[in-house]
């Protein structure tokens, strides 16, 4: 199958065919998702909380993003690879956004994602003018978890919904190629998806977005995270625990390694 590029996401929206994005941070998950036909791999700053053991994505560094972006980009050919700009690498201004965006592209990202609305239109414009495609991220934006007083659905009231729609239009105007909508009421993301000419990608944002995204360890039941918006398509935590416990038992009973695992 052909390499996924920005225009394919745009085509998907125009044809009303939803596309899928999953986070990925390493070789084997990336290869599995490519084989499964996932269109977009997001090297999210969620790597900080899913892999590195931090409490918040505000702890994820640029160096983390460069390392994990490299791992994913070296491992697959077909999916579009998007990497998050880490907290603190773009909030300080458009020039810093470009400097860090360049390094993510050098590591293998084909698009970079940043969080925020109108206030970040100049950053988006400068990145796009530099030849770096940008994905926006609105609604609940995890790097602002403290300012937002925790993980909460955004845009529940009319004023909040209007502000989200204005932010989405401002990002589109500034040149983003797509926008993630996180923890947004389904009716609000439906309205934004309708108004925008570029694709929306939902996470906890209902069924009307042009694409969907989930953190892979949540989707596959490895993290044990339980959120209303997450569906567990597998129970990897239980399966991996079973395998590890069986291995431990077989080592203890000298069942493993058997003759066939040993060299003459
Ligand atoms: O870092 C991440 O995993 C994300 C998605 C949840 C959209 O930004
Ligand atoms: Na992120």
TrEMBL record:
Gene3D superfamilies: Phosphoenolpyruvate-binding domains
Catalytic activity reported: (6R)-5,10-methylene-5,6,7,8-tetrahydrofolate + 3-methyl-2-oxobutanoate + H2O = 2-dehydropantoate + (6S)-5,6,7,8-tetrahydrofolate
SUPFAM superfamilies linked: Phosphoenolpyruvate/pyruvate domain
Alphabetical list of InterPro entries matching this protein: Pantoate_hydroxy_MeTrfase, Pyrv/PenolPyrv_kinase-like_dom, Pyrv_kinase-like_dom_sf
Residues engaged in binding Mg(2+): 45, 84, 115
Residue positions of the active site: 182
Cofactor section: Mg(2+)
GO function terms (MF aspect): 3-methyl-2-oxobutanoate hydroxymethyltransferase activity; magnesium ion binding; methyltransferase activity
The organism's place on the tree of life at top rank: Bacteria
Annotated pathway: Cofactor biosynthesis; (R)-pantothenate biosynthesis; (R)-pantoate from 3-methyl-2-oxobutanoate: step 1/2
E.C. number: 2.1.2.11
Cofactor remark from the record: Binds 1 Mg(2+) ion per subunit.
Top-level EC class: transferase
Binding site for 3-methyl-2-oxobutanoate: 45-46, 84, 113
Protein localization: Cytoplasm
Any Pfam family: Pantoate_transf
GO biological process, one term: methylation
Keywords attached to this entry: Cytoplasm, Magnesium, Metal-binding, Methyltransferase, Pantothenate biosynthesis, Transferase
GO terms for cellular component: cytoplasm
Function: Catalyzes the reversible reaction in which hydroxymethyl group from 5,10-methylenetetrahydrofolate is transferred onto alpha-ketoisovalerate to form ketopantoate.
Quaternary structure and partners: Homodecamer; pentamer of dimers.
Family: Belongs to the PanB family.
PANTHER family, A to Z: 3-METHYL-2-OXOBUTANOATE HYDROXYMETHYLTRANSFERASE (PTHR20881:SF0)
Protein name (record): 3-methyl-2-oxobutanoate hydroxymethyltransferase
Organism name: Brachybacterium muris UCD-AY4
